[in-house]
Amino acid sequence: MQVAILGLGRMGGNMARRLRQAGHEVVGWNRSTDITQQISKEVGLVVAKQVEDVVKLLETPRAVWLMLPAGDVTENILGELIGLLSKGDIVVEGGNSNFRDTMRRAEMLGAKGIHMLDAGVSGGIWGLKEGYSLMLGGDEEIVERLRPIFESLAPAPAKGWGRVGPSGAGHFVKMVHNGIEYGMMQSFAEGFEIMQAREDFALDLHRVAKIWQHGSVVRSWLLDLAERALKDDPKLSQIADYVEDSGEGRWTVFEAINENVPAPVITLALLQRLASRQESSFAAKMLAALRNQFGGHALKKPGS
Prior knowledge:
Number of strands: 8
Order of helices and strands: EHEHEHEHEHEHEHHEHHHHHH
Largest sheet: 8 strands, mixed
Strand content: 5-15%
Helix content: 40-55%
Shape: elongated
Mean pLDDT: 95
Structural class: alpha/beta
């Protein structure tokens, strides 16, 4: 089957490679042309130098998959595509876009007779080998048209992918997926810190992780990744204690509030990421000052 992928970064590039390995014809475009040429040499990707070239290189009805950063980049490329694509063409939006933007965009493209699917994509840099989990939103008939593409990207033809609802549902489910991921990661982080703090036991955290990988209730892919990280750097001494967030955790917390759903674990996991970015916490200073004021508790001076 023929498909174009716009955006050949860590995810999009490996998706293009996996599709080529499965025998699909893939047209690729990226803002930086170096990666496009590299993948073309590796797996025979058809190179598009401009977005308009993508449309020219595809047979109708076209299938164009966007793997671009959420926000203005996706918005601008969609704005360009809408003037180039024809009625009956399909756009798959696979970035981590806000589902409300997705619903608006689907309506905008639909007014031109262009179909849109939103694809929540999970699998990270391991997707090339292991496959990608795909959460699809949009018309069921359009999903079926691209079944060969989804089956090739997924871990197995009948596993790891599916339509979850109408337009916006794919990105909504992926948003919640990432919120859950925040909570799971925070739990592992806290557990390993508790063990690391018990200095008299001198625990080998890498060994603990390896033991847990087999038969324990907490065994998981995230634990496998923790084991790999601890193997490479047992004290994590080469990593700064600064944690970014992609935005989807924030959106999940917002939707929980909006729907009156209590989500304390995901919310606190997000707030812990924000706390990791503070070089100095004024709130902690205020807490210390209040303890000193009401109870005479000792204060530590800066640098002590």
